[in-house]
Amino acid sequence: MSRISARRPLSAVLVAVAALAIVAGPAAPPVRAADPVFGEPTIDSNFGQGVELTQPVTLDETPARVEVLLTYADPDRALVVELPPPTSIGATTLRHALSVGADGHIYPNTPISARWRITPADGQPVLGPIVETTYVDARFDWQTVSGDIVRVHWYEGDAAFGAHALRIGEEAVAETSALLGVTEDAPVDFFVYADQQAFYDALGPGTRENVGGQANADIRTLFALITPADINQPWVDIVVPHELVHLVFDTAVRNPYHFPPRWLNEGLAVHLSQGYDASDRAMVETAARSGGLVPLDGLAGQFPTTADGFRVA
């Protein structure tokens, strides 16, 4: 017995395939997870302990990368910190702590901004909102008096103490600006500490013992150790202008390529604050006779750490 099969016309086959395609529809593309949804971030600082960051976020998937973008004072320079991605999805809170220990000291009066960046497993990085704060030394009840440029902050001493410090600071800024041909219009904060340990806590564990003042140009802030009993001492009229010269000098020479040699920066500060006085002249002459002078190229970076070497430099 033979089997007889009927061949369907080609046109009929094509019609049937087309009908099936219409019924099935085109192949559905893979569903991509939604971008992270950010909530309101927080930033809380506690002097001497650290800075805490949080970022509420809702995730549809485990991201490929989680980062915090941090800026200190300069908004154009960001520090990127990569963190482990969360192990769960849905609503969660990302956390990060900034250390202020020996390896992560932050000067008081430093502005800090942060934002989180999340890169999905299959997608482009997504930025969260910016949150900002200023790291402050909240151990004291600061008093403040302001001039045209300088703002003095102190916690021991009367109004006359603050006014005297302000006068010294304003005069130093005006004289240095005139000499260097620059105009200062942004404020300079001048914090006066009355206790040595509190002063060293503010400057950090690497501070040398012979430091009585320090200027930080990045945050336009001067720190000085002056007790109310010392405000009329002659050295105060030297230390404060000396450090403020550094801030104005930074305004005059700042550029994106390199810093000027330290001997020029420090030499100008000494020249304007006290001049080439008799004691310094005698010390330099003695060093010259004994062969103890340091060549200028040896003073382009950090100065010697010994007391005698530091003074000669």
Q: Estimate the strand proportion.
A: 25-35%
Our measurement of the CA-to-CA distance between the termini, rounded to an integer number of angstroms, reads: 117 Å
Largest sheet: 5 strands, antiparallel
Separate helix tally: 7
Summarize the structure.
This protein has helices at 10-24, 159-180, 196-203, 236-253, 262-273, 278-290, 307-312; strands at residues 37-38, 42-46, 50-59, 65-72, 79-83, 90-98, 110-119, 126-127, 131-135, 143-146, 150-154, 188-193, 213-216, 221-225. It is of the alpha+beta class and 313 residues long. A hairpin with a 6-residue loop joins strand 7 and strand 8 (126-127).
Question: What does this protein look like?
Answer:
This protein has 313 residues and is α+β, with helices and mostly antiparallel strands. The chain is built from 7 helices and 14 strands. The protein has 2 domains: 37-135, Immunoglobulin-like (Sandwich), CATH 2.60.40.10; 143-275, Collagenase ColT, N-terminal domain (Glutaredoxin), CATH 3.40.30. Strand 7 and strand 8 (126-127) form a beta hairpin. It is 30% helix and 26% strand. Strands 4, 5, 7, 8 and 9 form a 5-stranded antiparallel sheet that branches. Strands 10-11-12-14-13 form a 5-stranded mixed sheet. Helix 2 crosses helix 4 (236-253) and helix 4 crosses helix 5 (262-273).
